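explain this chain.
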Amino acid sequence: MILTLAVSGYRSLREIVLPLDRLTVITGANGTGKSSLYRALRLLADVAQGRTIGALAAEGGLESTLWAGPETISRAMRSGQVPVQGTVRRDRVALRLGFAGEDYGYAVDLGLPVSGGAFAQDPEIKAEAVWVGESLNRHNSIAERAGGLVRVRSGRGEWRPLVTGLAAFDSMMTHATDPSQAPELLALRERMRGWRFYDHLRTDRDAPARRPRVGTRTPALAGDGADLAAAIQTIREIGDGAAFDAAIEDAFPGARVAVVQSGGLFAVTMHQHGLLRPLVAAELSDGTLRFLLLATALLTPRPPEVMVLNEPETSLHPDLIAPLARLIARASGAGQIVTVSHSAALAQALAGQGARTHELRKEVGETVAGMDDPPSWGWPKR
């Protein structure tokens, strides 16, 4: 489980450190930085896939994602006594992402390239670290990367080089995971690769979930929900079909969801109380289809260690918020769930289910969570 999430220099997240729980909800008004926090967590997962540089390029490049405010915000600026203004920069430009888990922590420091060329806009990985415990310090680090050198600590506490000349666009999480010399890096990388994100489940008229598709065993629903029918059938065969049916009954009393097969194609149908025939997926409302997608994702027979939902309440009728909260809470018994939502009703319902709640707000352009005692945190040195 992720115990702490830390982000520095990313969009409105100048410096934020958040404690996470088994069930956490991130909420706040529009424009307070919820989506930035979600994308920062997704960027962390991209590190383990070797996709960080490409993911930043898709957002317009590193410079377009960097914190645009002053390096430091004085008390006078916060109170409005003086205008917000820049000063002579003391630290290097950096976008830093990190997390601490129940056993290991990881952080990466991305910066601007020092040389030109055709790829001069690509960010460089300046430093990385893996450690044991909740906060990095000089005593608990077990793997470090500075420039092109990666070194790991032996069982006797001695440092030894593992990789030299690592390219600035490559992460030690993808190029230094030696199973014999750095098994902790390998284990952590595979766990990060297993994190699951849902932020663009499609429910539009042309959504792939509305059409019959060839079905194969599907333990995890695709990010766009395309394999909905196969994923539901997989839950029924190797998962908790009774829990799925109970979630549908909770949201739509008297309704039943079935998967029909014809010529190798799988399709979803829904029997609703009072109707003489079942509705096919193409006939379902956006909200109904979205709830089916969320129920399928959350009741996966192979739950990930971490699942992140971004605005799952989109298109849902207010009557479905409470059933959704109960569904999310149930799923958190099998893995950590982080929900990012601008719905006060969903945040309140999840808090009633025991969720830790962080309500973000803006102060002088900076996203803050308003905690009096945030977790301790240290970044790796370049």
In short: The mean pLDDT is 91.
